[in-house]
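As described in the Methods, two query proteins were run sequentially through the folding procedure within a single session, without resetting any intermediate state between them. The first query and its resulting structure tokens are shown here.
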Amino acid sequence: MTIALVGFSCLLLLCFLGFPLGFSTLLTGLVGFAFLRAWDWHAAFTMMSQLIVETGANYGLSVIPLFLLMGVFIHRANISEDLFEASYALLGKYRGGLAQATVLACAGFSAVSGSSIATAATMTKVAMPYMRRYRYDDSFSSGVIAAGGTLGIMIPPSVPLVIYGLVAEQDIGKLFIAGVGPGFLLVALYMVAVLAVVWLRPAAGPAGEGVPRRERFRRYRSVWPVLALFVLVLGGIYFGIFTPTEASGIGATGSAAFAWWRGRLRTLGDLYASLLEAAGTTAALFIVIFGAQIFSNFINLSGLPGALVDLVGHMSLSPAGTVFAVCVICIFLGMIFEAIGILLLIVPVFLPTLIIMDVDLIWFGIVMVIVVELGLITPPIGMNVFTVRAMMPDIRLARIFRGVVPFVAADLVALGLLFAFPAIAVGLLSFK
């Protein structure tokens, strides 16, 4: 167990020194594995090569590049503006309506892109000019966008849910279905958070102008492809028409057709640029996956998972208490690591304990995703906050972090509700 803690310390040090997470986990895991095998480097490199080949050939991982490609095509189709304008037509005339419209647009964009950072970057470009035009407080408006972007890792299709499903050996389709209820819950809580802010500080979110009825319906009609794609992908999985892997291919094809229809994917150059972007993101993600798998092998060899099982037994923690303890650890790790890195590092360590305690691993996966979601908007890393800051360099980082505080509170409320009412996540599965 001591060598495992030393390994985690070395990993943290490498990350603080600026090494990418994938290479940090790979290096630490490789050296740690060799140390535990009496410095048998041949065994360590054999383990690494076999694991990379086996993981890369895993058919289940094929959903990742396809869902990423789906998100790239949707982004290229420039649907974000239509989503925002439709949401504005619905809510813009009310106090705080622009902020609520941003939350809805983020949810809609997330439902077909699956990327938190892409959602935050895109909605900053689309929503921020509107909110500045109506004199919204910059801290509040940037906080709404940063927090709204986190919906991308909860609302299916979600890459972190795919990663969790593969690591925990859970049905990805069930995880997607289980993510729908908590996803809508988060949207509702974020909108309540907006109402709370404008009730306490009316000047933070003034009302916008109303939209004529005919124009409202025109804007509503413009977003039907997004709804159709979401229903097609998720409905097909729910009713067993196709598997998550098949759904990812259908989603990518549908989003490509939509981008072509809008005139944004008419040349080979457009297609090449889209494929190149998806391939680059996939490669970066797979390096993290490979590194985390190697690090997990080192942790398993060190005996840490078994030691944790014994420790939990001695402490007499209940299943809920154990999950709560894991959540606290993940919240702190979320201040340092990205969401997928946390899932790959923590889940294999605690999985044996959770299985022995008969914790519902589908429910636990949803809880984990909400916890790592917090890491996207909490200091010092807060990837979504830094994304908004990069798009709006005139807003100080501290002001954006201040703006996300109500939404951090909303995430914590969502966590509490999931602990109190697990059916929010798993209830929909009982109707299947």
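Immediately afterward, the second query was submitted; its sequence and tokens are:
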Amino acid sequence: MERLRLAGAQIDPVVGDVDGNVDRVLDAYRRAAERGAHLVVFPELAITGYPPEDLVFKPSFLAASRDAMERVASRTGEAAAVFGFVDSSHAGPANAAALCRGGQVLAVYHKILLPNYSVFDEERYFVPGDELLLAEFGDVGVAITICEDLWFPWGPLPSVANAGAEVVVSLNGSPYRLGKAERLGPMLATRAADHGVHLLWVNQVGGQDELVFEGQSTYLDPQGRVRARAAAFEEELLLVDLPVAEGATARLADRPRRTSTAEPHPGFPVRRVRVMDTVPDPGRPVAPRMAREQGVEEEVYRALVTATHDYVHKNGFQRVLIGLSGGIDSSLVAAIATDALGRERVTGVAMPAQHSSPDSLGDARKLADNLGIELLTLPIGEPVEGFLSALKEPFAGTEPGVAEENIQARVRGTLLMSISNKFGHLVLTTGNKSELAVGYSTLYGDMAGGFAVIRDLPKTLVYRLARWRNELGVVIPQAVLDKPPTAELRPGQLDTDSLPPYEVLDPILDRYIEDDASAEEIVAAGFDPETVEKVLRMVDGAEYKRRQAPPGPKVTGRSFGKDRRLPITNRFHGFPRPAR
């Protein structure tokens, strides 16, 4: 049986590192060609990195992208390659894929469906394509698509399948989010089975600012069954042998099912490009690779490790600083940072104050010992008193309160940023999504830093990840997991003094932030009306704080930042206004 060998090059490009990305593409191409691949498929915008954002507006960037594409093309040999780049040679910049072989560019495909929701702004940058591409390998038609092209049944797939495609390859820059597989898997299976095609979905890995990409490139047969899958959060070359006769058989047997009520793009011409007259024998068959599935905690933890590693590495930092309070949040961030970077590149800083318990300092020391990281201890009593003394006149005649308490957090932030400024280290902040949502954080205090590792983790998920990490080997002291959360800014303070229990707070936040539910809808789900109104008022009132928070990786369905854009000056709220 004739076999077409495809290679999915699951690489970790760096946005803007055009020359470095060329090297990454050529290295993967060489390895795939040596293993008999007929076509090597790379991720979306592999040459420029994804997403390039406003770099697309720079003429020099567009020229560099085009030049790099031609350089890669000139280095191709018997194996064909298809890889993403920004093409500005036509009506405007396009999210494009270059099909190359034998030192030449055979064709360029422009992405047709441009996502413009959630974290995606592609209509801001790109013009959509208006031509489909069918690459011919002997008698086998291979359709080229890019990411969003597959997500909707009215995309280009029905047209290219009807034009004779037996294989579809999809180049992707598809960011990770919790629960993504539950939507992606059925969608890919439906596309493959509905059109009776072999489908190779190739995704990038790595972190890029607020996004992290999991990879998990996947091959599905014409019945929609997953036959091969690459690992999550690791670079990998996924090779698959396609018995192409199976695709034709499936399509003939499944003709009624392929009739879709969705309208394909009308009038789009199909460009046919001859890549190989005959498909040479690729040699010994490759064994299917099926990476194991991961549980929720492992999946999210590895996403955060990948995001942290790449943010630090790609931005040129050599070391990170973490304020260690002896609490659960800073403990988890320290564990993630150590797993991402190695113990020699992580420094913990304990900054005890008047209201810090001896147990908290002891827990911070034990955590540092367990992780094997350096720990600095910088008591803050003296600088706090200095601030209070300086503020004695303007604060005269007032009762001590939150302003005085927050001086402690701001002193800690100043110390961390001063060390960062002196030595060039990156400060990792330790606030979680629950706190960020309701503004339970101090601007220019615990929010001061360069990368917010767990800013998209609800507090309840923080505990789950910490317990999961300890299953691999105990690093977070049990006392940290057992004690109630507290900021320790005043005697006997607990988070529940200001907030509902996190087991109540997080489900309310999930409905309000991810589902855009109103107060009435949340109350109807069984939550206390007064609690709901309090929480929603806190969320809406903290928008100005969130705008000043450092970036951090998206892991939930809707994160703060690019994924949720609300005005700061805003009088529309999700709770009833008082009668006048």
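The longest strand covers residues 3-10. We note this only descriptively and draw no conclusion about the first query from it.
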